[in-house]
Structure to design on (247 residues):
């Protein structure tokens, strides 16, 4: 086997190892979400601060007013599945046009796919009822834990913010995360989730984004690291030769 063939096999092996590491991270995040859901609905169900969550929901429900009803209704609608899909599709196209590469688009798509997959698995395995207040939105058949609206908003707007911050170096891009924060408040205000549900949504969205960044942007450790060293060595030798020639 030639040196180039061994290098190709090494790169392929390294690529598969990177895929396995990403899959393990996805499984780990899924296990964390299911484990947290089990703790919230079983072990810690009658412990503080989870016993105080109903009071938060009732307090928000008691302070409802027409203006906030309208505003939170818009925020909740923007973060639901149809709107999120449309916004994500637009973000994917814009990212491709702006950067000229599919990697930025892949980041957005990967973050949302990981989030949606783990959200569905978690809601199947964790059964938590909605808060005991009047719901202002139609209640989906999924569990209250975690907040899918919040998780999707964190994954989508977090991915866009990360791309902008990476491309421009402007920290102001992270102000986009105010959108998931307002979505989380809207879901609480409208009686659709407990506080711990939206916290779990933030965790799921952020974890999905972190895994997507690693999968799409983390440099793969290539075998044969002697190549850069050899290149550096050749440059050094060239410089030495030039110096010798000058002498």
């Amino acid at each position: 086997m030639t040196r180039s063939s061994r290098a190709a096999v090494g790169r392929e092996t390294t690529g598969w190892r990177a895929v396995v590491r990403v899959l393990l991270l996805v499984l780990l995040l899924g296990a964390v979400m299911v484990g947290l859901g089990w703790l919230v609905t079983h072990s810690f169900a009658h412990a503080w601060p989870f016993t105080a969550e109903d009071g938060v929901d009732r307090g928000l429900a008691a302070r409802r007013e027409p203006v906030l009803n309208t505003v939170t209704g818009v925020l909740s609608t923007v973060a639901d599945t149809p709107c999120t899909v449309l916004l994500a599709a637009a973000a994917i196209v814009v990212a491709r046009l702006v950067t000229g590469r599919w990697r930025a688009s892949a980041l957005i798509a990967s973050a949302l796919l990981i989030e949606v997959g783990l959200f569905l698995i978690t809601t199947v395995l964790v059964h938590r009822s909605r808060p005991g207040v009047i719901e202002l939105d139609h209640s989906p058949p999924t569990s209250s834990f975690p907040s899918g609206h919040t998780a999707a908003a964190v994954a989508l707007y977090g991915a866009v913010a990360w791309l902008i911050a990476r491309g421009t170096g402007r920290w102001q891009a992270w102000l986009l995360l105010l959108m998931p924060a307002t979505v989380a408040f809207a879901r609480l205000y409208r009686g659709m989730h407990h506080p711990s549900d939206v916290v779990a949504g933030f965790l799921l969205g952020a974890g999905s984004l972190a895994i997507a960044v690693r999968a799409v942007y983390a440099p793969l450790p290539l075998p044969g690291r002697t190549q850069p060293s050899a290149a550096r060595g050749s440059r050094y030798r060239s410089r030495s030769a030039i110096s010798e020639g000058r002498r």
